[in-house]
Amino acid sequence: MIIAAEAPAQARPDPRGLILQAAILVFGAFLWIVAERMPADMPLIGPYDFVPSIYLATTFTLFWYLRGLMRLAPARRPALWRRASFLAGVVLLYSVVQTGFEYPAQRMFFLNRIQHVALHHIGPVLIGVSMAGPVILEGGPGWLTRLANSRFSARVMAVLQQPAVATVLFSGSFYFWLYPPVHFYAMLNTPIYNFMNWTMALDGILFWAMVLDTRARPAAHASFGTRAALSVAVMFPQIVLGALITFAGHDIYPFYAFCGRYFPGISAVMDQQIGGIIIWIPPAMMSAVALIVVLNNMRRVEVRRAAGARGQAEVRGRAA
Question: How many CB atoms lie within 10 A of CB 141?
Answer without folding.
Answer: 16
